[in-house]
Amino acid sequence: MISFNDYFDVKRLNHLSVVVENNMPQPHLTAGSQQPPKIADKLRLYSMEYCPYAHRVRLILNVKKIPHDIVNINLINQPEWYFKIHPQGYVPALDTGSQIVIESLDICDFLDDKYPSPPLYPSDAPSKNLDKALLKKIQPLHSVFLRCISLNENKSLEEWAQEFLPHLQTFEMELCQRGSRFFGGEKPGMVDYMLWPWGERAGTVVIAHGRQLPFASDQFPRLREWRKAMRGDPVCEGLYYGPEKYWKIIQIKLRRAPPEYDTL
After folding, report:
1. Beta bridge partners of 68
2. Which of 40, 104, 171, 222 is 20 to 30 A off residue 143, Cα-Cα?
3. Residue 197: which domain range?
């Protein structure tokens, strides 16, 4: 939803309109479906509307305003033809017309190299390497997050907080050392957009456990401000679903319920 103040920010509205146009919800194709024909002069992203890894790629496509279309895949009942795109049937996968690129970080790096404006990494090699190293630290954080909300382990929230602590401290300390609002400086960069899908979904922990992780209100001040700032970014806003829909996806996995992605 666009606030009253946003109507006075023409640039922001224009960017939001581009994001909305490129990301109108598409049905999730299942077994027995036909592969949609490619659209000339557009990249194709094979996605799932609520997948955090596909979310990463959609963010970068929209940051760089790259013409593309999206084909959503039902990840529990994949179309037969999709295994020719991705042998394991996973998303995301990017069809460039001449090659298929898989894995979210590899796709986003490919897009940043191929479409350099705006640049999402620092221009100097040491700083870029630091960002690349930081990106590798997101996956361990995601692993703890997924275990926490899956409710398969008999652990208290206090115990989960201790598992989250070193990972959150890593990103908090990095923001402190950089002294900027975003990991990318005064504007979000690659690290920001690669981390954001879990920033958006952080509230799923509260839904799953009924209360927040027991961190003090003054812990992680930089990360808290970062999350607010990212929520206000027009690209993030245009792709925002929030933790509630992600929790429904987790419930589908836990209950092995019919994956009715199109009616969430």
Report:
1. 43
2. 222
3. 125-231
